[in-house]
Amino acid sequence: MEDFRTLVLNRFSCRKYDTMRRPSLELLADVLEDARLAPSACNRQPWEFWVIDSEGPAREAVIASYEREWIRTAPAFIICLGREAEGWVRPFDVHSHIDVDLSIAAEHICLSATAHGLGSCWVCNFNPEVLRRGLDIPEGLRPVAIIPVGYPAEGITVPAKTRKSADEIIRWL
């Protein structure tokens, strides 16, 4: 098992993929197994993961929902969807934790992809209605994130991490 800190340091938002090399279905299934094992509030597991790994209308719907040229280089997409009726709701303020649960699972996807030598990128700035129509997503299922997955293009390296200092973000009480 790889050292966790090394894994975290090597995970980055890949925005250029090797268009000649595709991850195998077995490799994608292994990444998705790590998402399946993610924790969720009250173990509700209010999620679905839709995989798009070939040319066609589903791929074009993803591209249409996020109009950035780089996304076309990704050979596969994992669409993270929340089952709204299944999410845990905090009783004090009626706040649904679907986004939190899906965020945990999506980061499991990104970390697993890194551990398997793949690149990934967390995409939230997409048009959910374009994606909903293009993929025929039923009511009650909310698209939360698109995760492009593939081998990073040649020459793509892990960028230096620029983060706030611990003193800026941690308060010991």
Description of the structure:
By secondary structure, the chain is α+β, with helices and mostly antiparallel strands. The chain has one domain (21-154): NADH Oxidase (3-Layer(aba) Sandwich), CATH 3.40.109.10. The chain has six helices and six strands; from the N terminus they run H-H-E-H-E-E-E-H-E-H-E-H. It has helices spanning 4-10, 25-36, 57-65, 98-115, 128-135, 166-169, and strands spanning 47-52, 76-83, 89-90, 95-96, 119-120, 141-150. It has a four-stranded antiparallel sheet with strand order 1-2-6-5, sandwiched between helices. Strands 3-4 form a two-stranded antiparallel sheet. Strand 3 (89-90) and strand 4 (95-96) form a beta hairpin. Helix 2 (25-36) crosses helix 4 and helix 3 (57-65) runs antiparallel to helix 5.
What topology does this entry show?
Elements lengths: L3 H7 L14 H12 L10 E6 L4 H9 L10 E8 L5 E2 L4 E2 L1 H18 L3 E2 L7 H8 L5 E10 L15 H4 L4
Antiparallel strand pairs: 1-2, 2-6, 3-4, 5-6
Helix pairs in contact: 2-4, 3-5
Mean pLDDT: 97
CATH architecture: 3-Layer(aba) Sandwich
What portion of residues belong to β-strands? 15-25%
Quote the distance from N terminus to C terminus. 34 Å
H/I helix tally: 6
Rg to the nearest angstrom? 17 Å
CATH superfamily: NADH Oxidase
Instruction: Briefly note the structural class of the backbone.
Output: alpha+beta
Q: Can you list the strand order of the major beta sheet?
A: 1-2-6-5
List its traits:
173 residues; alpha+beta; NADH Oxidase; four-stranded antiparallel β-sheet
Short description:
The protein is an alpha+beta fold and 173 residues long. It has six helices and six strands. It has a single domain, classed as NADH Oxidase (3-Layer(aba) Sandwich), CATH 3.40.109.10.
